[in-house]
């Protein structure tokens, strides 16, 4: 097992910047805005042969009374409980605050290995400016600059020295296939609630306020021996409602998460029906070639008439996702969420299916015998053979002559034949035509 290091501290001290520096990624959104990170965020890091996991947390208020700050505090407490070493990040320029004392008292009671780090210390002389931090009673204070990388290596070496490293940790384990599942939808549709229901713990902040999740949060998960990476995305609003710069960052992270996923679980709100924004998200997933599973959340909150209306709305507004399986669920009551895994597994298998060239060519010839393509211009399209051109999504390349004249209706006919033959569920299928060059054109 890799050791775990948690980054804690009050808001806007640079925890996410330090997280990105350690993981050598830009996975955590960084901006000069307090309270930006809300969920705990995991990332892999390495120093030499030593590998470890870093957890980025939201601004910590141990005695937060209620609301979103209480939920953020619970996330940080859970991260500290999971960690082997805690890095307590302070603001070297802002000085010591009452909140820092509260966090120090909380960490002292846990008696967990803790490292004090004064961030934003670039250009400052060691000594006098850092003296006040020693009154926290947690040992030596290390000055660093996460933004510029100064002192970060020494800091992580000091943190890792607090751990016992067995020899087997130095040998990297072989990587196994991990299915990346992005849970996408509009704000407040229940994405974080669904992931928490799967995990059986309050892993993500779920709060009755649109825009609670601001980052694309990745959570490792294993079910029946299959490893997953669950990605909770920020809710995508209409462009006219994205006012904050923070939300604009969140939209980018959500679109990136959809592009990088193997399967997208598109969550709809039964109480609000299918909106333009749902159609936009579905369209983006389709353009990205991602496998899609549809789930209608809060199904228990509507009556039979509303259910019929909603199903007709899905057929008309999301008709381009006919290949996607549809589920009715209630994430809050944990109803209907287990069958989602069957559809997710089938969608992934369909997206990664291998299609032998002889079988594809035989299916193509049988389709032509059943229904030949219409003549276009002077010539009738002649299709000779087909082969697979890619996966996730599956791509079928058909070679022949005069294929520029194949109409959309015949493309849909071929798609239906290929889908039925390979039992493709939940994934888009792309068919490309390549016309052979005529040597006598000139």
TrEMBL record:
In the UniProt record, does the keyword Repeat occur? yes
Q: Which InterPro entries match?
A: G_ENGA, GTP-bd, GTPase_Der, KH_dom-like, KH_dom-like_a/b, P-loop_NTPase, Small_GTP-bd
SUPFAM superfamilies under this entry?
Answer: P-loop containing nucleoside triphosphate hydrolases (SSF52540)
Origin: domain of life: Bacteria
Residues of the EngA-type G domain: 3-167, 179-352
**Which one Pfam family would you cite for this protein?**
KH_dom-like
Example GO biological process term? ribosome biogenesis
Residues recorded as binding GTP 1, renumbered to this chain, are 9-16, 56-60, 119-122
Query: What CDD domains does the annotation carry?
Result: EngA1, EngA2
Which residues of the sequence carry a binding annotation for GTP 2? Answer: 185-192, 232-236, 297-300
Q: Which keywords belong to this entry?
A: GTP-binding, Nucleotide-binding, Repeat, Ribosome biogenesis
Gene Ontology molecular function: any one: GTP binding
Q: Which HAMAP family match?
A: GTPase_Der (MF_00195)
Oligomeric and partner information: Associates with the 50S ribosomal subunit.
Task: Name the family.
Answer: Belongs to the TRAFAC class TrmE-Era-EngA-EngB-Septin-like GTPase superfamily. EngA (Der) GTPase family.
Name the job this protein performs.
GTPase that plays an essential role in the late steps of ribosome biogenesis.
The name of this protein is GTPase Der
Q: Which organism is it from?
A: Malikia granosa
Please spell out the taxonomic lineage of the organism that makes this protein.
Answer: Bacteria, Pseudomonadati, Pseudomonadota, Betaproteobacteria, Burkholderiales
Originating gene: der
């Amino acid at each position: 097992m890799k050791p775990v290091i948690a980054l804690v501290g009050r808001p806007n001290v640079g925890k996410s910047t330090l997280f990105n520096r350690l993981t050598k990624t830009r996975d955590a959104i960084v901006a000069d805005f307090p309270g930006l990170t809300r969920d705990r965020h995991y990332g892999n890091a390495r120093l030499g042969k030593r590998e470890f996991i870093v957890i980025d947390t939201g601004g910590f208020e141990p005695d937060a009374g209620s609301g979103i700050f209480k939920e953020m505090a619970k996330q940080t407490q859970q991260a500290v409980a999971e960690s082997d070493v805690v890095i307590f990040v302070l603001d070297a320029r802002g000085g010591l605050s009452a909140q820092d004392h509260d966090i120090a008292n909380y960490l002292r009671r846990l008696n967990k290995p803790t490292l004090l780090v004064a961030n934003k210390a670039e250009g400052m002389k060691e000594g006098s400016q850092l003296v006040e931090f020693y009154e926290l009673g947690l040992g030596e204070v290390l000055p660093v600059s996460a933004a510029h990388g100064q002192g970060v290596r020494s800091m992580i070496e000091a943190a890792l020295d607090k751990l016992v490293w067995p020899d087997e940790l130095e040998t990297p384990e072989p990587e196994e296939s991990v299915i990346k599942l992005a849970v996408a939808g509009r704000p407040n549709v229940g994405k974080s609630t669904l992931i928490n229901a799967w995990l059986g713990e309050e892993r993500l902040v779920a709060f009755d306020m649109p825009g609670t999740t601001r980052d694309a949060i990745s959570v490792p998960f294993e079910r029946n021996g299959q490893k997953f990476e669950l990605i909770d995305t920020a809710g995508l609003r209409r462009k006219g409602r994205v006012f904050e710069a923070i939300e604009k960052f969140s939209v980018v992270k959500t679109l990136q998460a959809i592009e990088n996923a193997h399967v997208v679980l598109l969550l709809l709100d039964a109480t609000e029906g299918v909106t333009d924004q749902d159609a936009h998200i579905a369209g983006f997933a389709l353009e990205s070639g991602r496998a899609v599973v549809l789930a209608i959340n809060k199904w228990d909150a509507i009556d039979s008439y509303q259910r019929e209306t909603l199903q007709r709305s899905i057929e008309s507004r999301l008709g381009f996702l006919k290949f996607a399986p549809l589920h009715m669920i209630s994430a809050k009551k944990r109803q209907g969420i287990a069958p989602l895994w069957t559809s997710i597994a089938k969608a992934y298998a369909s997206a990664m299916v291998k299609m032998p060239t002889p079988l594809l060519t035989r299916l193509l010839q049988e389709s032509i015998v059943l229904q030949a393509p219409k003549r276009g211009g002077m010539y009738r399209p002649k299709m000779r053979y087909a082969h697979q051109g890619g996966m996730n999504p599956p791509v079928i390349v058909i070679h022949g002559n005069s294929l520029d004249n194949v109409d959309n209706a015949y493309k849909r006919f071929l798609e239906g034949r290929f889908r039925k033959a390979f039992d493709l569920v939940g994934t888009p299928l792309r068919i490309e035509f390549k016309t052979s060059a005529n040597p006598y054109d000139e």
